[in-house]
């Protein structure tokens, strides 16, 4: 574990890493035992690769508000917030109340229902580019459907995505996700399946346009996250997004925004409103399901109505989901409850933004006071601290992230968890919820300062 750090200053680093691990192991004995058992039944003990971290993840017992509790009785202040899906914290009252009622009224109808219609109407009101939409159960499905719709609408094949861009585990977009970007994302995905996908360097207009020029005649769509999420919490430059949107227009291709993280997280009207963008299609998930499974593909009527089966033969329609659990009344009602609450309390966003600015500034300040070179990126309530290596001055793309000191970032997050009961999924961005306050941010900054003191002398940054 943390081999690079160990190699640099063997003994000191080793002592520090061992101290953090020992402390974690001593307080999570039951988790360790359960993880050992789980990994014999569930590959790597978890059903989502990113949830695994060394030496083993703690086993959650329950969560409430800003806290997540493990089976060993530890309470952690949670900044992972259910893959950033919880903007009101864990199990907010508005969600719990509605779920109590809905659960006894039926958990799945498997047919149309008014709850879904209400959520669709609310989304259309908040995000007018959602002239029509379809519900699915995960974000991975929503992005897969968006790509399929784009290919069907344009009659073209090529999909342009971003290096480091994460759109879920759907095969169409499992390309150039992890560094090194030119290597396949693992076995089982055929080269042929990705023949029609190209990857663009984030925030690099010139580099992206020259790749797009190479596929112009066959370009079906460009799909981009307005804030590169899993790959480093990096906001897109406004000019970059405009250039992609413009290029898509000029090439008669569709411009797709993946707002699964940013939708209802950065503003009630999405990042598309903040950046004044006009996507042809966009995807939602996470917050839109209020902490329950959801994915939504939204867009202009002309495009979305290709999914309308009425009066069309098989060859004329686009087969998109969303599956057995689409429009299930629990996810839909939880999503409605959260969106209603956000719409009635719009000041929430400015408050979260203040906390986000406080945390980004605070961590960078205390780290630099200890001579540790970092840059906290993000926007609004999302943030991530990068440990800069020689030659990296700023973090603007997944390539910059790849040459930062990721082991040090993991160690920092692990130290927060082990020594200070503050939970980030190691090396992933943090999300602030309405349950967090300035005191939590102060605690996080103070803990970061103490960790900076621990790691500064390692002299590897
Ligand atoms: C930007 C983005 N798109 C799509 C997805 C996939 O969503 P899901 O995990 O619900 O399939 C994610 C998940 O983290 C995401 O961050």
Give a description of the structure.
The protein is an alpha/beta fold. It folds into two domains: 3-90 and 347-456, Alpha-Beta Complex (Aspartate Aminotransferase, domain 1), CATH 3.90.1150; 93-344, Type I PLP-dependent aspartate aminotransferase-like (Major domain) (Aspartate Aminotransferase, domain 2, 3-Layer(aba) Sandwich), CATH 3.40.640.10. Helices cover 41% and strands 15% of the residues. It contains 16 helices and 16 strands. The chain has a seven-stranded mixed beta sheet, with helices on both faces. It has a four-stranded mixed beta sheet with strand order 1-2-3-15. α2 (10-27) crosses α15, α8 (205-213) runs parallel beside α9 and α13 packs parallel to α16 (438-456). It is globular, with a radius of gyration of 22 Å. The model has no long low-confidence stretch (mean pLDDT 96). The protein binds pyridoxal-5'-phosphate.
